[in-house]
Every structure is written in structure tokens, then in C-alpha cells.
């Protein structure tokens, strides 16, 4: 057996199922899935030419994608020292699809992109049957469901224009999508067996609130722009953060009926603030909202009726900063002790410490390692933060110290047009 055949055979234990779904020839093998040499056999068959058009080049490409997505193939990771990420990219900025990013505890490696997954601006996994849902940000927005092995099972309209965020209630199998340009939220019940999205209920924020069409910033807030959605921890509410309306909307959620009521305003941001994303405290009834236009971090008390009350706010930028910048992503660590926010333009990550009451205070600004840090992945177990710098097309890796501060590792990876980072587990 050649070295490459031995390698392929060794991967069978956790890659075979996904490979079988991608290559009909494998399913026709008389030994079926019980053959311990089925992938090496495919390698030889591909060299001779398969009837389904599979070649060694396509086989290696699929193996690379499958090996880079062990969880997407439906198998649990065996070690926390081997993390994996996925990166969605914009085609107009050079992105070639959905990229696998594999780590070995010390270094990261970018794999070959999965073909046919363009402009994936956000996604979430854990749907029925291990389904992943990715939105395609375009004028005619789309949301696609992918089975293990990144096999597309369904593509439907997102119910609006330029979808940019999704949320999933796994227990009820319900999906929500924020459509930015149309200022709307689409709610999809999912088939509990296949994970396929049903016809959505679509809600326009302009219909819910007359104030929603009168933002202070006439260029960015000419209309509502839904930017984030998320289900409340008690599963009674679906919240939507709207940059254009300077508001958070609350939809009463019934997980038994698998439905939502029309939205009402749950919190009004200061005029012109442009709220973008929200993160919830892991143990306290608190939420943290990052505002893109005002570059502010707001601490909110979450009430049982689904509304929020502002408690505290502070800037995400250094004191005295005068240059143009737009706050973007926010994440809170699992312990509820630190919050991280990215600043595009200032090109930094701001680190905030949370006191016993959950109120943040700034402890660090650090350069993001590239230009326009739109997104980052906070990896608690690995004590790392991976920053996606959209305009420089790079990922920068940082170590997280015991006090939550960041330090650059010096590792930079090329991912053109990166706009989304997810973890397939």
C-alpha cells in the first residue's frame, strides 16, 4: 500500500460517512461501509476513472474538506487540542467559498475552500441531523441547509435582502434570520427529521414602529436594518437588534406552537447609536450591546417581560481618538469575566473586565493584526482569540492571558474577504 493510501485508510474511522454521501461510487462498493480499505480503493478507482466523474483531484478536495470539518461529518472531537473553525467569505473581496481552519494546539492551517458556498456572512450548526444553516448575503437573500459533509439539502429565500445573522432554538427546531437591507426578520420552523426550513413568517420592523424609519444618521439609518437575532435563555423571547431603527425588538416566542408574535420595541438606543450585536451574560440577567455608529458598549438589565433597561455605557475606543471607526463584533467569555469587542478603522480589539455586578471597565486595546476586524472567534478552552480582518483578508491569532488580556502569537493566515468565523461543534 502506498503512503497516500495508508493515510486515506487511516482517516476512514471518522470521515467515511461524509465521503460516502459525496461519492455515489463508494456506495456501490460491494463491501459497502464495512470495508476498511474503501477510501484507498476509491483512490485507485479514481486514477482509472469513475463512472460518476470522480477524479483523484476531486477526491482529495473532498477529503480535505471532510478532514477539516470532523464535527460537520457527525463525529465528536476527541481532543480539545485540535480545534476547527470555518470561515465565510465575500466573493467580491476575493473569497473562494467556505474555508476550513484546522488547529493542532500550536498552529493553524487554512484548508481548501468548499465549492459552491459563496458570500456566507453568518451561520449556525446543531440543527436536526447535524444540519448547518448558512445565509448568503445578497439582494435576493438565501439561507441554505447543509448536512454532514457540507452536502446542501435545501436552499430557500431568507425572506428579505442581505441576510447577515441567524439564530437557532435547537429544542423546538426553529430558525430566525436577520435581513439587513430589508430591515426584516424571518422565522422558520424546521422539519424535525430532515432539518429543512418550512415557509417563513416575515416581519418588517418599519411596520412595528413608526420611529423605526427615522434614524439620526441619514446615510446609515434611512430605514430599519436588522443586524442580529437571538433567543432568550428562558426561550420566551426572540430578540432582534436593529442598527437602522436604533432599537432592539422583542418577539414573544412559543416553542411548543413553534411561532412568534409580531415584534414590539424592547429597548431604544440613543439616537444615532446604531446598535449592531448583542451578547448575554452567562449567569446574570444582563445583556451587552455594541453600537456600530457611536462606538459604544451598553450594559442592559434584561427584564422578564422581554424588555431591557439601560444601566451603563462606555466607549469601545481609546480616550481622545478622533479617527473614523465602526464597532463590530462582541463576545463574552464562558466565565462571565471578560468582554471582547472589535473596532474597524481603529483596527483593534478592546478588552473589558466585568465586576461582580457585571459592569464592564476597559483594561486593554490591542491592534487586531490586520485591517477591518469584522469578526473573531473566542476559544475559551484553547485560551486563544482568532480575529478575522476583512479588508486585509487575514486571520490573526492571539493568546488569552489569565487576566483576559490578549497577546499576539505572531501567527497570521490568509483568508480573503473573511466575514464570518464559526466552530463546527
Task: Offer a quick outline of the entry.
The protein has 6 helices and 29 strands. The chain has 425 residues and is mainly beta.
Please supply descriptive tags for the structure shown above.
425 residues; mainly beta; globular
Strands, helices and their partners?
Elements: H1 3-10, H2 12-22, H3 24-28, H4 38-48, H5 56-68, E1 84-89, E2 99-103, E3 108-110, E4 120-127, E5 131-136, E6 142-147, E7 151-157, E8 163-169, E9 174-179, E10 184-189, E11 201-204, H6 205-208, E12 226-231, E13 237-242, E14 247-254, E15 259-260, E16 264-268, E17 275-280, E18 286-291, E19 296-302, E20 308-315, E21 326-332, E22 338-344, E23 348-354, E24 360-367, E25 373-379, E26 384-389, E27 394-400, E28 406-414, E29 418-422
Antiparallel strand pairs: 1-2, 1-29, 2-3, 4-5, 5-6, 6-7, 8-9, 9-10, 10-11, 12-13, 13-14, 14-15, 14-16, 17-18, 18-19, 19-20, 21-22, 22-23, 23-24, 25-26, 26-27, 27-28
Helix pairs in contact: 1-4, 2-5
Fold and architecture overview:
- The protein is mainly β and 425 residues long.
- It contains 6 helices and 29 strands.
- It has helices at 3-10, 12-22, 24-28, 38-48, 56-68, 205-208; strands spanning 84-89, 99-103, 108-110, 120-127, 131-136, 142-147, 151-157, 163-169, 174-179, 184-189, 201-204, 226-231, 237-242, 247-254, 259-260, 264-268, 275-280, 286-291, 296-302, 308-315, 326-332, 338-344, 348-354, 360-367, 373-379, 384-389, 394-400, 406-414, 418-422.
- Strands 12, 13, 14, 15 and 16 form a 5-stranded antiparallel beta sheet that branches.
- α1 (3-10) crosses α4 (38-48) and α2 (12-22) packs across α5.
- The radius of gyration is 22 Å and the shape is globular.
- The model is unreliable at 1-59 and 65-81 (pLDDT under 50).
Amino acid at each position: 500500500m502506498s503512503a497516500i493510501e495508508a493515510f486515506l485508510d487511516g482517516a476512514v474511522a471518522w470521515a467515511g460517512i461524509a465521503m460516502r454521501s459525496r461519492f455515489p461510487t463508494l456506495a456501490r462498493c460491494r463491501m459497502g461501509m464495512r470495508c476498511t480499505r474503501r477510501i484507498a480503493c476509491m483512490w485507485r478507482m479514481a486514477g482509472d476513472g469513475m463512472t460518476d466523474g470522480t477524479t483523484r483531484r476531486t477526491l482529495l478536495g473532498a477529503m480535505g474538506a471532510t478532514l477539516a470539518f470532523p464535527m460537520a461529518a457527525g463525529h465528536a472531537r476527541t481532543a480539545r487540542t485540535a480545534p476547527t473553525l470555518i470561515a465565510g467569505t465575500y466573493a467580491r473581496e476575493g473569497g473562494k467559498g467556505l474555508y476550513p481552519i484546522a488547529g493542532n494546539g500550536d498552529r493553524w492551517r487554512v484548508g481548501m475552500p468548499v465549492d459552491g458556498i459563496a458570500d456566507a456572512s453568518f451561520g449556525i450548526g446543531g440543527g436536526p441531523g447535524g444540519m448547518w444553516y448558512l445565509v448568503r448575503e445578497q439582494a435576493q437573500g438565501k439561507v441554505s441547509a447543509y448536512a454532514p459533509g457540507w452536502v446542501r439539502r435545501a436552499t430557500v429565500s431568507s425572506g428579505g435582502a442581505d441576510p447577515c445573522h441567524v439564530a437557532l432554538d435547537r429544542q423546538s427546531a426553529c430558525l430566525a434570520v436577520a435581513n439587513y437591507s430589508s430591515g426584516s426578520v424571518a422565522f422558520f420552523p424546521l422539519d424535525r427529521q430532515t432539518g429543512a426550513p418550512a415557509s417563513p413568517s416575515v416581519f418588517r420592523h418599519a411596520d412595528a414602529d413608526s420611529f423605526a424609519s427615522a434614524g439620526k444618521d441619514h446615510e446609515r439609518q434611512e430605514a430599519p436594518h436588522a443586524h442580529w437575532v437571538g433567543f432568550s435563555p428562558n426561550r420566551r423571547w426572540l430578540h432582534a437588534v436593529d442598527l437602522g431603527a436604533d432599537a432592539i425588538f422583542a418577539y414573544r416566542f412559543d416553542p411548543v406552537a413553534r411561532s412568534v408574535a409580531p415584534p414590539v420595541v424592547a429597548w431604544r438606543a440613543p439616537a444615532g447609536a446604531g446598535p449592531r450585536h448583542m451578547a448575554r451574560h452567562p449567569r446574570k440577567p444582563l445583556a451587552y450591546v455594541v453600537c456600530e455608529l457611536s462606538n459604544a458598549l451598553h450594559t442592559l438589565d434584561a427584564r422578564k417581560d422581554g424588555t431591557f433597561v439601560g444601566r451603563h455605557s462606555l466607549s469601545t475606543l481609546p480616550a481622545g481618538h478622533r479617527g473614523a471607526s465602526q464597532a463590530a463584533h462582541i463576545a463574552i467569555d464562558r466565565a462571565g469575566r471578560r468582554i471582547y469587542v472589535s473596532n474597524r478603522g481603529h483596527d483593534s480589539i478592546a478588552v473589558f473586565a466585568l465586576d461582580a455586578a457585571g459592569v464592564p471597565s476597559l483594561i486593554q486595546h490591542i491592534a487586531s493584526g490586520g485591517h477591518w476586524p469584522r469578526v473573531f472567534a473566542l476559544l475559551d478552552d484553547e485560551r486563544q482569540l482568532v480575529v478575522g480582518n476583512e479588508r486585509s483578508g487575514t486571520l490573526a491569532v492571539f493568546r488569552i492571558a489569565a487576566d483576559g488580556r490578549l497577546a499576539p502569537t505572531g501567527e497570521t493566515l490568509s483568508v480573503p474577504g473573511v466575514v464570518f468565523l464559526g466552530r463546527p461543534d
